Fold Kinase-like protein.
Amino acid sequence: MGETSWAQRAVDNFFKGRECPTRIECDQIARSVSDALDVYNVDTPGAMTYTVVCTKQYTILMAPRSVTWDLLTIFEEDFDQETGAFQHTTFAVIDEDDIAYFGTLNYRKHDITLEQLTSALTPISDHDFFPPWDEKLTRAPDALPPNIYVKRPDLVLYGVFQEHNALRLIPEGLFEEVKAMEMLSQHPHPNIIYYYGCRVRRGRITGLILERHSYTLTDYLKNKVKSVDKEPFMEALKSAIRHLHSLDWAHNDLNPGNVLVNEAGMPILIDFGSARRIGTKLGTSRGTKGWIDGEIKDYHTSDYRHDLSALEKIHTWLDKS
């Protein structure tokens, strides 16, 4: 590897140990004010500022080449929360090049043809959806086992955040989970999901490559795959949580949907989008209603007590299942 440039060393030193603003926040500000798709450092020895050059890229907006019903990531009807009146149908897809597309139509699902749906899909800008790649992170190898899962940003959130002019929260959310998985990859645990690294396209993190298991705990019991040996199961889940707490982190969104069941019938803890160091502020991902104490709006700070409370709720839920 070549020697790190002066600009890169200066930028690294600037952001080292700095919680606010983060590098990703500064880069996003640069992109937003310049309407650029990417930024890079200017190698200017002696400069006292964090300087970037914004590169403008123009993309012809086109619908994806081929869409089938089974490729849709989301295809759901939206209703007014107060009146219950139908509003529109939302749909999205991510193609083989990791380009995300999103669309809506003012028709019910059963009235929409595949041709109409495909024509209504428009590509999502990478910088609105995927965080920038950082060479310090783990890049997933090209050769991967067949049983992998690619976790991407949640396309369901795109329409909501677009409406509220908060699209930056989508790539920020994925990047927070990347940081958690990078930390855990240095401190593995048998009951925490295995992380292969980041999937990278066009200089962006387009997904987290994780091991795949067929069922969440919710679906495992709902589909009556097998019975769960509750005491060993809960002890293994508690072990994963204790391990996380020993690293001064909390999960903050423990619920049966965020626990997979492996072939041995044991738990695998997943979904670290809400995981933070103890005492730090939570982002937009912050617990699941019914599995936390109190209201979501009051759920602000990473705390090991969130996980301990959820463990008790899961234990009680298993007793009733």
